[in-house]
Batch of 4 targets.
Target 1
Amino acid sequence: MAKLSPSLLSADFGRLAEQIKEVETGGADLIHLDVMDGHFVPNISLGIPVIKSLRKVTKLPFDVHLMIEKPERYIEDFVNAGADIITVHQEVSPHLHRTIQNIKSYDVKAGIAINPSTPLENIKYVLNDIDMVLVMTVNPGFGGQSLIKEMKHKIIELKRMIKDKGLNVEIEVDGGVKLENVREVIDWGADVIVAGSAIFKAEDVIKQTKKFKDLINR
Ligand SMILES: O=C(CO)[C@H](O)[C@H](O)COP(=O)(O)O
Ligand SMILES: [Fe+2]
């Protein structure tokens, strides 16, 4: 069964604790935290101290998506802040294998994120070292964008690669997932669904989370 990881990027930043409780009540499996540095992506979001304070609010795993340059400099800080999964972008990690080993040395899960234009070839030789691949289905930096349709082929191909190698690697799909397309995305091969604006911009966040979960479980 696929898991749901609501992205706080579209939450009300003045009520983050409350909004986490709402998605938890609705049945969220993870909490997706988008960290942006204004360099790798043109936006700046939240960082280490915010994650650390939110750690007290819930026991749900923290799925931390680092959209920052030189992520290797901050792995220990994110572990100490309470991250359970740390995902770094392939595009900013020339020593990806070393960074993955570093993440895993803290006994947290390691993920690699790839932008829409990044080929699967770039992660082929580290697939057996990681727990998750985050496929960006929008260009990173902002919530509320539309899913890039071409990513369907990338997700299907990645699922096949993982299966052929007999690996236990999850596929997380991030960007533009809504109630209308979540079933389709799961059919392509998604194991973890990220949804930001589709959950937090809804009138009733608890009900909306439940609707996602019902569709995912169908
Ligand atoms: O990584 C991200 C943006 O870079 C976000 O996780 C993603 O965009 C979620 O927002 P939405 O569901 O609104 O597309
Ligand atoms: Fe994200």
Target 2
Amino acid sequence: MTPAARFAAAIEVLDDVFAGAPAERTLTTWARKNRFAGSKDRAAIRNHVYDVLRARRSLCAAGGDTTARAAILGLLRRDGIPVDTVFGAGGYGPAALSLDEVGSATLPHSDAVSADLPDWLWPLWQESLGQAAMATAQLMRHRASVYLRVNLSRGTRDEAVAALARDGIVSKPVDQVNTAIEVIENERKVAGSSAYASGLVEVQDTASQIAMAQLRSVAGRRVLDYCAGGGGKALALADQTDATVYAHDIDQARMADIGPRAQRAGVQITTLGPSDLMRHAPYDLVLCDAPCSGSGTWRRTPDAKWRLTPHDLDRFSVMQAEVLENAKPLVAQGGTLAYATCSVLNSENDAVVDAFLAKHGDFQRQETLKLVPRAEHDGFFLTTLLKIQP
Ligand SMILES: C[S@@+](CC[C@H](N)C(=O)[O-])C[C@H]1O[C@@H](n2cnc3c(N)ncnc32)[C@H](O)[C@@H]1O
């Protein structure tokens, strides 16, 4: 495909996404219907779509309209790509700009537009991030690197970097935590690499790795990952502690990959259904990596930023409180209840923890880790609560 045709395809996909369709599924459907597109084409189209979604409001403003076509026009203008090499350039690219489009002026900017956030969310974002609100919002317009976690039971970080290099993947260690590697080139080769197949590396953001490193000292002998999903956190804890690690999720189907992932990593994780939880209790550490808006990871899932509603945030707060209530009886005396989200919003973080502590005098707040999104990591929140005598 020509570069212009890739932009035309991105406009086609974005038309559906702007109408409410999920980005990833729309890209997959487009690829199925357009078999002539090769892997490089698909990757380029995906990048255009995600670049727009990260900065949808400001790009539409720069393109003078709220359509997908205007957003791509805004993207070209922002990135200094000559507009006539794409619009009206032939080669199955988008049609030439109309006179109105050529003369379109940048729409007026509010702070929420500059922050590329929905209007209703901007005050909550400011309240949560204070002085860092605008800079953090604007950072979320940029692509985030892929980060890997080295399974230290399988090898060292230097060995992992060397193994990845043998498969043509350029990577480098990350300073903040001794398990993290940033992929610099050829991230799409990771899943097929021998370092991945042999369990030497797993895909995991640096923020999660920093948080799990912090939990090592309170793991004790028995750990329960109460909201395990695909098991990313449980795998990290199993690799880095001597504890027996259990995993649970209300949606048991989500845990389907934990067995194969644990086997690859050479660690043991026992998955538990709801009726098994009490049988193995109490646990020295119960981690609640709660369902949340994911606002700290919106560089990777930018369409979620535009889909989120105030009602969703209320629903998350209810679920988060429920998770802590249900997990509470499983914690051993002197043990730790850890609450985590990948959100930066207070309503999902401190507010949930404060409400829990106001109800339960037998828990005492210990450490809190608040990671604001940066080039090297996503946003993350972790608080540890010690179970004490009431
Ligand atoms: C943020 S995800 C977990 C991600 C996972 N820990 C990881 O590292 O890959 C939240 C998970 O919580 C689960 N969940 C939601 N409500 C729950 C509840 N009441 N009890 C247990 N799990 C719940 C969801 O099914 C979802 O898999």
Target 3
Amino acid sequence: MTAPDRSILKRAAAVRAVGEVQDGMVIGLGTGSTSAFAIEELSRRVAAGLKIVGVPTSERTRLMAQQQGVPLLKPGDRPRLDLTIDGADQVERGSLDLVKGAGGALLGEKIVASASDRMIVIVDDSKIVERLGKATPLPVEIVSFGWRYTVDRLTALGLRPHLRLVDGKPFVSDAGNHIADCHIDEIADAAGLEAELSSLVGVVETGLFLGLASTVIVGRPDGIEVMQR
Ligand SMILES: O=C[C@H](O)[C@H](O)[C@H](O)COP(=O)(O)O
């Protein structure tokens, strides 16, 4: 059997999610390859007359949306968002808790998702896990100043942090921070880990998105699966 084309599955999930968007909505625009399909579909609907305003979760998404003619919120405006559509690196079946941040946009994504009435997560079926943990590292955004101390604190918690590098240099997020990718076998207590990480000096935000996803739309080779919280 040939491997399914992940792009087709991601696009199918994205198109289904954008089907929920209605005139007048303020929409959070996620970051990553799956969200890019959602922006493309939103752009198509905007060209056909849909009236919405988008709130980008990253600089990359802002540029993409602008280029595709999706109207964006003016800097300084801060209405409540009706809906955010975003991808994920892991989705825990059952709780719908997430790991996000492989693309480095976790801080903007969490701020926007937390300001939204609903979050629809769009993924292909490779992202679904029984328990969050080892499928991908957990990204933790840390202040660049003194990052070695912060990495030591993460190590002391029993995590295996690796500073994310791009071309041999520390990755720099939109907010000017670094990211420690933490290798973990299985996250038995996600809320406990989130609380522990958030209390560490030097930690800005974690890629754990707990209780934020209202719906997960999964693109599968045999069709779409919709999971509700
Ligand atoms: O920082 C990046 C984001 O959390 C992405 O939403 C996540 O990594 C999923 O990206 P993709 O849709 O490309 O797999």
Target 4
Amino acid sequence: MASRSILRDRNPPNPPGEQDSSTRPLHMVTPSKNAFQTFFGKVDRATSSTPPPPVPSIPVQHRMSTTSSNGGERGGNNVPVTPFRASRAYTEHGTIIQPSNEATPAAPKIRAGMTPEARTRLMPTPKPLPPSKLRGNQTPASSSGSTMRLVQPRQSISRSQEPFTRDTYELPMPMPLHAGSLGEGLYAGGDEWDAPGGQAVGQTESGWQEIGSQSSNETVLVTVRIRPLASTNPHDANAWSTPVDAGYPLPRTIRLADGTRKEWCFDQILPPSTTNHQTYLSSALPHVRSAMQGFNAVCFAYGQTGSGKSHTMAGTTGDPGVVPLAVEEIFRIIREGREREWVLRASYLELYNETLVDLLTPPGPGGTTAGGEIQILNGKKEGEVQINGLTEMIVTTVAEVKKVLSIGDGRRRTGCTDWNERSSRSHSVFRIVIESRSKSTTGEDESNVNARNRGKNQATRISTLSLIDLAGSEKATASKERNAEGRYINQSLLTLKNVISKLAEQSAKKTTGHIPYRDSKLYVLDEIGDAKISVICTINPSQTAIAESQSTLAFAAGIKRVVLHAKQTEVVDPAALIQQYQTEIADLRAKLAEKDAEMSQASQDGYKRMTLKERQEQENQRSRLDELRRLILTSSNVEDEETAEENAKLQEELCVAQAKVKEQALEIAELRKQLELRPQKPDEEVARLKLEVDQMNEIIKDYENNMDEPSVKLREDVEAEWLPKVQKLEARAKERETFYKSLYNSVLELKSQKAQLKEVSSVGVLRVIHPTLKLTNLYSQRCQKLESICHEYIALHEPSQSEFDYGSNRGVSTSSSVSSPVASTISTFSSNQDDSHFSSNPYSSRVTSVSMAHLGSKLAMSNVGRNGGGLRSLKEDSSFDLVKQAALLEGDEEIF
Ligand SMILES: Nc1ncnc2c1ncn2[C@@H]1O[C@H](COP(=O)(O)OP(=O)(O)OP(=O)(O)O)[C@@H](O)[C@H]1O
């Protein structure tokens, strides 16, 4: 079977120009507790350079590569070791491994060349445990059967609901419905499982330790699962019949319902009514347990497109499939096994169109696989291969594994086929690498320096559980894309078939020879060579799918013939992750203990206390220690699902709260800053305001100055221009005032003269003495009339006191001594109103008439614009004609 031996060379050569990576340190950092990060990094050790400076709180960083070969020899510890090359790191607790050129923390560094799994393959001489540790009546060969059955009473099972049609099978119930109860039974040793050969297998109360390094010759566990008929075609009927064989709880044979063709026989046939849980219990649970015991185990679903492979493997929320149930089982085993501790890492890849893609790496731009393409390179030796670019994540809870699954499922290619609306167009492989070792060897309680070396020679079990959902085989379809995919799918399935039939052939003939693993990249499933395998072949019972179902059954029959040589691997491997962690834990504990001792001595001696740097270092060491303890799973630190969920919730809340705290801390820091600046600020403000006020004052002053200047000048100018005018006006007003007064006096004078004249005329002397008396009389009348006019006029225009005050109010000097022409005229007139002149001097009458005429004219002038009507009436007054006549009479015409 040398040709079937899959060797993984842990130290393949570096390509030219690449540095020997094994000599480069790996960087470990402290992952934040339960902080599940969903980002991934890829580390190419070959291209990594000197590690950057440390950064706290970044998860552990490992680098790994997996080399695989077929046909190689198994080496031992003395196998020449070629330098390890890694391309992608695996992570702790689902945390990304940082590329080596990114910042890394100040955590202790470890050197790890490769995945423990890869090492396992290179350590073919695991240290077997002493026979005393094996179970009494158990032989290594008998201890690992994979065809166990749980004998159950027959039950009537109702069929599943829509969209599938009902049928009425009366079939035995294959398994109890609750895995937990089944597991309890198994662990208690009181189970009813029986394996071929009559030996019960499983775990005893004393735990896994009892099982030593063993191998088994067993066949693949082949299960045929018939899915319910789709309800889309009511005339369709189940094309297959599954008679129940005597002595078996489940049917083992299947044949066409019409009785034609041959009968097929397998380990178990699951009727359409079977649930995912039942399928898991009968087909996968034993393999999950084997994986936990250190056997590589593979469980895959094979079948035509739409026959229920994904339904079987992934299931639904209400009816979880093999993968989630297996994960739960793994954690349940860890929780219940008190004597071992574990490290789990998960990876998820797909093979699409013959391209291997890491589903835990985000796709490249435009959804290309660039980001996550896994490369398979030739190894150093012929037949060896090196797998680069696979992300492995350290997982510590069911929730974390589910997260990994959901990330990967989200990136799987699906498409619509003739049979399945959401068909998987790729083969997907979900793998969990399980490392475990006995608790007693870890030196957990030891804190001295010697503890560092303890556990280094302890055996570690390393195994892989691979859960595979193959893409469905299919006939050509109308879709070009589907056809192309179909070709690849069929090709890889054909390779798988060939590999298996070759293996079967060699098993039967007990020969060795070439196995065509590499005809398809499905050969990454090289665990097939030494794993326990369970195949669930799904078939669609429809009459229309008979050919495809027969093809599936042929495959199932072929694989059933393969004899497996599963090996439980228990090795002493310093590169095993659990070993590295333990070593690091012991190292950290010793360092911390040394430091504590040193410090307590120092404080006794009165020395100084730790420096800040030392304290920081110690803090880092403590948190790293906590982290490592958390990553190593034990019965005490693995929570049940409920608690885990609760914790996850709390964790989320904590994250939110921490983010808030951070935010608030920033705010506080900002406020503090402002506070520090605050005492300066008011001063600055006051100074600024003062300056502003000063500036404003300046501006106002300047403004006032500038404004004053023109206003003074303006006043002067205005005064210069208007003062003479005002003075003139005031003089005129004064004049007028004087004139009015004079006029008034004149009128009074006239009145008195008139009175005198009346007196004289009443005597009648003058009337006879002087011929002009008639005229005088007439004149008198006229004067009278004039007087009355003047009275009227004066009454109408008599200046008000204010008008008289005008000059004095304004302070304008108006000299009363300045006699106006009017005044003089009036005065002349007045002065000539003396009786003697009047009566004896004709000139006086002439002057008087002239004066009166002049007076009339002045009156008219003085009233221009004031009382045009009055002037007019004066002018028009006939008395002026008379005055004129009188003047003419006296030959003084030019006056007018
Ligand atoms: N046993 C079952 N019980 C109920 N529904 C089922 C069962 N098997 C399959 N189905 C349903 O049939 C449909 C196709 O199933 P599924 O996707 O699992 O097929 P498949 O074999 O994975 O197809 P492909 O290879 O194209 O991905 C799904 O809707 C699924 O829910």
